[in-house]
Amino acid sequence: MQLTKEEKKFWQRYFRVEKIGDIPNVWPSIGGYGYGDEQFDDYFYFISLRVSIVHEIILKGSYVTDEGVKHMTVFKELKLLYLRKHQAITKKSIPYFNQMKSLESLNITKTNITLTDLCENLNNQSLKEVFIDSEENEENILEKAFILKERMPNCNIYLDTCFATNILGNPIKPIF
Question: Residue 142 has what pLDDT?
Answer without folding.
Answer: 82
